[in-house]
Amino acid sequence: MSISLEEHISSRKTFAIISHPDAGKTTLTEKLLLFGGAIHLAGNVKARKTQRYATSDWMELERQRGISITSSAMQFNYQGFVINILDTPGHQDFSEDTYRTLTAADSAVMLIDAAKGVEVQTIKLFEVCKRRGIPIFTFVNKMDREGKHPIDLMDEVEKVLGIEAYAMNWPIGDGADFKGIYDRETGNVECFTDGLRKGNDDTRRTGHVDDPEIREWIGEDLLNRFQEEIELLDMAGNVFDKERVDRGEVTPVFFGSALNNFGVPNFLDSFLELAPAPAPRQSNMGTLEPASPQFVGFVFKIQANMNAMHRDRIAFIRICSGRYERGMNVIHNRTHRKMRLAQPQQLFAQERTILDEAYAGDIIGVHDSGVLRIGDVLAEKDGIEFEAMPFFSPENFARVSIANALKRKQFIKGIQELQEEGAIHVFRDLNIGVEAPVVGVVGQLQFEVLEYRLRDEYGVEVQINSLPYEIVQWIPKDEEKIRILKESSMSMVVLDQDENYAVLLLDKWKANWLSERYGIDFYPQPIRE
Ligand code: G4P
Where does the record place the Tr-type G domain (predicted)? Predict the structure, then answer.
């Protein structure tokens, strides 16, 4: 029996996991992959800090720093669903990359460490999801350890993040006394046995909360406490409202322990029931339905040299509508040129498989020879555009120069490619030129990655000299004003990659002063004429 386009698309769930580093994102991802039967790969997603399996040489830096810098896409099948997980970098210096990845997701899973609660990075990533209005599901992890009280955690989610929280299940005890999880809909308790704590999966058991054996196992004290909490939740807690979940106004909360694979299966089942399938997207040509027959996708990420084995550049494309077929021709909207999607790949951690077909909701990786840019649209027809990717203004600037002039060619290539990936913003100093560009980044750590990748992937040693500027603004091409800014000690005039004039400024007060004193209009983004 053949499956219709609609059925293919409605079986897809594409989401990203957001969390503060160390909350257990890798562990949860691994467990989710286990359900898809991808056991042999599970350990490689982002291997443990000590025995990490580097997907490419430069991830060595990531290993040393113990953070996740890259993001990749993983796909698995489970109970008739096709699940796409987008990995997002946990470190705040890479929030730009994270934001772009989230534009490709239809929902997000927010992972919280029960002992730490809502942490800084969770807040930032949450805000990004909220801006997109996608549904957010919360998994409170590490319940096998001593943590904050679940009521306090729910309260923290609501107060700190400003979203209503609805507990789908409820923990009974915590830490050494953690007895299990109570499902509020079915009344079943999934027991956290001593065997499970030691990793023995055969000791898993579930029973109804009214079952005397289960009650005895929980013990009177804990049972009383638990019942009071449930009464409180039922009386004073939020009401479950699926439509509000869809709008991202209420987050369903689940408790569990990813490390022990406890609460994860239940979470996955509920998530698959509640999370949205690929949604329609707004374009300049109106609403684009995912099941419309025309293939449309957009580039949300570009990455060079992902794998030492494949020194190539991959553009990640989120399919928004229709079906991709191997070898199909599409139009690249920015150049209006025809492109053949000859060997798109499905990216599963470091393994790649050539794809024969893919549907709206899926992520494909295509080889890119330097034509594609983030935000570009590939479609069967020309002319479709989506809302521009949000622009994150760089806040740190440095002049980057090569130690060995013989490596000039590789240096220019490296800088150019990293710019195209969106890893750095490159400006040209009017007096110096491409040999010593000014590079702007959002977070300092990006400079370290730049230095490392230029050495590792392009064989170039560079010097990175910080500049004192904190802001970049774009200016109209007005010779008199440009002259004033060039002469000022508070600013530096540069050209961006598209030859637009921009000015680096020491801080916002000096920017205001210059603007008022000389009547100069500053723009926070390149001016589109
Ligand atoms: P991240 O990707 O969000 O940074 O987190 P990751 O999964 O690497 O997990 C961070 C640490 O938290 C790891 O310990 C992991 O084993 C632990 N962890 C994850 N889930 C749970 C849980 O449910 N319960 C408990 N008790 N710990 C959990 P580590 O010591 O840093 O690494 P490892 O040496 O154990 O691999």
Answer: 10-281
C-alpha 257 – ligand 1 centre gap (Å) = 10
Q: Is 141 in the pocket of ligand 1 (CB under 6 A)?
A: yes
The mean pLDDT of 205-222, rounded to a whole number, is: 93
Question: What confidence tier does 438 reach under pLDDT thresholds 50, 70, 90?
Answer: very high
The per-residue pLDDT for range 148-200, each reduced to its tens digit, is: 999 999 999 999 999 999 999 999 998 889 999 999 999 999 999 888 877 77
Output the CA torsion sign for 369, 377, 281, 354: negative
> Of 252, 274, 296, which one is at a domain's C-terminal end?
274
Residues 220-226 have a mean pLDDT of: 94
Domain count, the chain: 3
Taken in order 18, 19, 22, 25, the sign of the CA dihedral is: negative
Q: Which of 255, 274, 293 is the last residue of a domain?
A: 274
Is residue 317 domain-shared with residue 461, that is, in the same domain?
A: no
Choice between 349 and 165, residue whose per-residue pLDDT is larger: 165
List the domain range (segments joined by +) for residue 108.
17-72+88-274
CATH number of the CATH domain containing 49: 3.40.50.300
Any domain includes 529: no
**pLDDT tens for each residue of 243-257:** 999 999 999 999 999
Residue 77 lies in a domain: no
Provide the CA 461 distance to its chain's centre, in angstroms. Answer: 30
Question: Residue 238: how many CA atoms within 13 Å on its side-chain side?
Answer: 21
Residues 270 and 288 in one domain: no
Residue 371: Cβ within 10 Å count: 13
For residue 41, give every residue at least 6 positions away whose Cβ sits within 8 Å of its Cβ, in sequence order, or none.
33, 348, 349, 351
Q: Give the nearest ligand 1 atom to 27 CA.
A: 7
pLDDT(39) > 90: no
Instruction: Report the pLDDT value the prediction gives residue 174, as an integer from 0 to 100.
Output: 84
Cα of 4 vs centre of ligand 1, distance in Å, is 41
Average pLDDT, integer, range 459-483? 95
Nearest to 301 by CA among 365, 234, 255: 365
Cβ(22) – ligand 1 distance below 6 Å: yes
* Contact (Cβ atoms closer than 8 angstroms) between residue 254 and residue 137: yes
Confidence (pLDDT) at 193? 85
464 CA distance to ligand 1 centroid (A)? 35
Q: Does any ligand 1 atom lie closer than 6 A to the CB of residue 296?
A: no
Nearest CA residue ID for atom 28, ligand 1: 259
Q: How far, in Å, from the CA of 369 to the mean position of ligand 1?
A: 38
Q: Please provide the DSSP assignment of 334-403 as one string.
A: TTTEEEEE-S-EEEETTEEEE-SEEETT-EEEEE-SS---TT-EEESSS---BPPPPPPPP-EEEEEEES
